[in-house]
Each structure stands twice: as structure tokens, then as C-alpha cells.
């Protein structure tokens, strides 16, 4: 009998759900034993339901092909046979909030890729390398929910992973003002070029809700716990533009930063490449050995060359240089469906297991 923790993937047929299944196909700690989706998919095998809509580069894992899809709204039925759930459900924000809390109240931890609970005051929004200490708020959340082991934790917006890690690495220099433009892959909208042919050779200068997330979510990550809730940081002030570009995977950011304390280029690069966190200390299976790499070539980072750095879980920074208006500017790149979505959520689940929040039922 497997000693791996049993996982249900909610929203298993969508792009992020598929990525969860692909990542977990050979995971040392976790095993997908349950797949759940909308009522119209329930009762079919996973292979039947997904059919030719499998979007991953790797083939569909054999272990999930014959799993019968459960109705995601049958919360007790789905939760009864698993130790925790990974959520990528496609519902309205209010519906997601309600159903994720319902799962948590069955004493089943929920690690969510969705944005619905990112601003729930006692729900931690975690980049494991940056703010693992926010997991401490879970005990307050459990009291509110009336649970002993059930809780919700979320990962942040995918695009902020391309510049927020650099700001975290440079914390001691006091970044206080940031301008960032993100150039975001179409998979961030859950699509590929076959489904979105109008994106071929095209740029769309608007992504609904993305700029608000990009400006505010880093402040919650940099915040602190006070009276049982997470209080966002007041600095840095961030303004962004978010643009959809004809790339399948990889969000790129061009960022400009003002610092309170002077630093040399060499000092800033050293802080990037030496930046490490709890996942590296704990040796989490999905953790990159080196979280941030710095690329010296002027034409890097590039999506084609660098998006899969550290298996898609690392962040690439380049073109760090003095600016004539701000202090410094740089270009960042992260994989939006690995580090930015499903992979980041899996690493969060690994952190929760390592810290004792997720255990076998």
C-alpha cells in the first residue's frame, strides 16, 4: 500500500488541473487518487472527459486515465477518500469561496490556485521561498472555520512571480517604488494557440483584473500577521501594466525600482543569486535548488531559452542596469503554469506537509 498522501484535484479537466495531474504523476509525497470536475463531466473516466483537450506536452499519465470523475459539488463524497485537495475549479469567485470553505470544513486542507480567497484576511497567500511564516495564520483560520485540520491556503497571481522575488531578495535596500509591465503568455488565460488563433502575431494591451492583482498582491506577501489576520505592507508602492503576448508559457516583466538605500550592481546581483528560503532548507521536492538566477547576457532572459529554468520553478533575472529616472531597472521571467500556478501550489502543499499542517487522515 502506498504511503503517499492522497490528493483530489478539483477542476481536474482544465489547464491548471491538467498541470496538477502532470506534476503529480511521479511525485514522491503525493498521489492523485480522486479527480473532480463539473457535474457534466461526472461519471465519465478522466480520459473520456478530457479527450483531445489534453494540453500538456507530456502524455496523460496512465494512472489517471481510468479514474472516474466525481462531481466537484459533492463535497463530502470527494473529500471522504483523500488527505487534501488541490483546487483549480472554474466557478464565480463567490462560488469558489463557498465551496473551498465547505471542503475545509470536512477537515480536508485546501491548497488553491484560485484568486477567490487571496484577500480573505486569515487565509495565507504564500510564495514558499518568500513568506512561509504566513502559515502561522492558519491556526486563527481554523478557529473561525471550527476545524481541527481543515484550512485554506492559496498561491498568488502568476505574473507577480516574475518580479516580486527580486524585490524580496533586495529587501534590505528598501525598495519603495516600482513600475512594472508584464508580458503574459496565453496559457495564463487557460488557452493555447489552437483555441485562441487571434493571438498569433498579436498583442492585447489589457487583461481583466490583472493590474489590480499585480499592484496589491506583493504587498500582502510582504505583510505581517496581527490579531489573527494578515496585514499588507505599505511599501513598495507598485504600478503596473499587463499585456497579453503571443507566447504559450512564460510571463516576462520589465521593472523599474527606487530604493531607500544605495546598492551597487554587484551587491544586487549577489542578493539575487544567494536568495534562499524555507523550501531549500527543507529540501521540498518541487523546490528549485537555486530560486533566482542572474543572466549576464544582454539578450536574456528569453522565454525560448529560460522559461524552464529549474524545471520551471526558478526565476530568471537579467538586464539589471542603472536608470535615468528610477534607481535600477531589470527584466524578469517566470513560468506561469509551473512556478506561477500549479507548481507553486504543489510546492505550497509540500511546505504545509513539512510544517505539519497536512497529514494523512
SSE pattern, N- to C-terminal? EHEHHEHEHEHEHEHEEEEHHEHEEH
Q: Please tally the β strands and state the result.
A: 14
The tally of helices reads 12
Strand order of the largest sheet: 3-2-1-4-5-6
Largest sheet: 6 strands, parallel
Beta strand %: 15-25%
In the predicted model, the low-confidence regions spanning at least 5 consecutive residues are none
As a percent range, the share of helical residues equals 25-40%
Q: Tell me, what is the CATH class of the largest domain?
A: Alpha Beta
The structure class reads alpha/beta
Gyration radius over CA: 20 Å
GO molecular function, one term: aspartate-semialdehyde dehydrogenase activity
InterPro entries: ASADH-related, Asp_semi-ald_DH_pep-lack, NAD(P)-bd_dom_sf, Semialdehyde_DH_NAD-bd, Semialdhyde_DH_dimer_dom
Organism: Butyrivibrio fibrisolvens
Active site: 158 (acyl-thioester intermediate), 251 (proton acceptor)
Notes on the protein architecture:
The protein has 361 residues and is an alpha/beta fold. It folds into two domains: 5-155 and 342-354, NAD(P)-binding Rossmann-like Domain (Rossmann fold), CATH 3.40.50.720; 160-334, Dihydrodipicolinate Reductase, domain 2, CATH 3.30.360. 26% of the residues lie in helices and 22% in strands. It is built from twelve helices and 14 strands. The strands form three sheets. The protein has a six-stranded parallel beta sheet with strand order 3-2-1-4-5-6, sandwiched between helices. A six-stranded mixed beta sheet has the order 10-7-11-14-13-12. Strands 8-9 form a two-stranded antiparallel sheet. β1 (5-10), α1 (15-23) and β2 (30-37) form a beta-alpha-beta unit. The model has no long low-confidence stretch (mean pLDDT 97). Belongs to the aspartate-semialdehyde dehydrogenase family.
